[in-house]
Amino acid sequence: MIPRFDVLGVHVNAIDIPTATDEIGRWIDRREPHYVCVTGVHGVMESQSDAELLAIHNRSGLTTPDGMPMVWAGKWAGLAVERVYGPDLMLALCERAVESGWTSYFYGGAEGVADRLAHELTARFPGLRVAGTYSPPFRPLSPTEDIEVVERINAAAPDLVYVGLSTPKQERWMAAHVGLLHAPALLGVGAAFDIHAGTLRQAPRWMQRSGTEWLFRLAVEPRRLWRRYLSNNPRFAVRLMTHPPRPMTTARIDQEVQVHA
């Protein structure tokens, strides 16, 4: 079992990208249905007031440290951990998919973004097999529409379903559909859709590594993100000082998963 550490109740895996791709490859080989939460400060803070979202994170096959604050928290807990950023994980899996013959499905994004994403990735990774794309409307789907989506994706028979609906919508969607979809791996990668489709600028690597990426994203999308960053980041820092991250034992992970099941 890949170790986890507790960040304000959210169980984050102490992991790196090669380990994550290997684990996802095992799901595909065994046809075991799981989902991946790619989680940073926003996901952790949203979970503080949302017990269902907290449970969704903690039932995941993997909850990866998306931002540098999660990496620092893992190191504080005494574990070896690296950033597993959604856009980087997507690229690593696309490369592995070409080697292994896995098929990919892209669900999410604004109209046309999933198609553009598929075009850009197949150009970047010759031989990448795309099973399909779908950009759902920006409203809740009716039960009939949802059944149609499940049937559509299952008919395409992908190994990997990338979900780009933003947090916490994508986490809820994955938790509701894992098992209903035959795909072994559902991956909530959020902004990776827009970044790799070329519709959203990505922060320079030095900002990603220094933990200042949020400043870049705030400058690019101020109206959408200002409340998130100016509220969540200070509250996260204060709460972490009083509730330091800690490594989790296998017994405690199993016990808490059973409680939330």
Explain this structure to me?
By secondary structure, the protein is of the alpha/beta class. The protein has one domain (4-260). It is 54% helix and 16% strand. The protein is built from 13 helices and 9 strands. The strands form 2 sheets. Strands 4-3-8-7-5-6 form a 6-stranded parallel sheet, sandwiched between helices. Helix 8 (169-177) links the parallel strand 7 (160-164) and strand 8. Helix 1 crosses helix 5 and helix 2 packs across helix 12. The protein starts with a strand and ends with a helix.
Helix/strand class: alpha/beta
Strand count, sense and barrel status of the largest sheet are:
6 strands, parallel
Beginning-to-end CA distance, first to last residue: 19 Å
Count of discrete structural domains: 1
Average pLDDT, rounded to a whole number, is 92
Mass-distribution shape: globular
**How much of the polypeptide forms β-strand, as a percent range?**
15-25%
Cross-sheet strand order for the largest sheet:
4-3-8-7-5-6
- The gyration radius over C-alpha positions equals 18 Å
Query: Spans with pLDDT under 50 lasting ≥5 residues?
Result: none
Give me the count of strands: 9
Helix content: 40-55%
Tell me the number of helical segments per DSSP (H or I, 4 or more residues long): 13
Order of helices and strands: EEHEHHEHHEHEHEHEHHHHEH
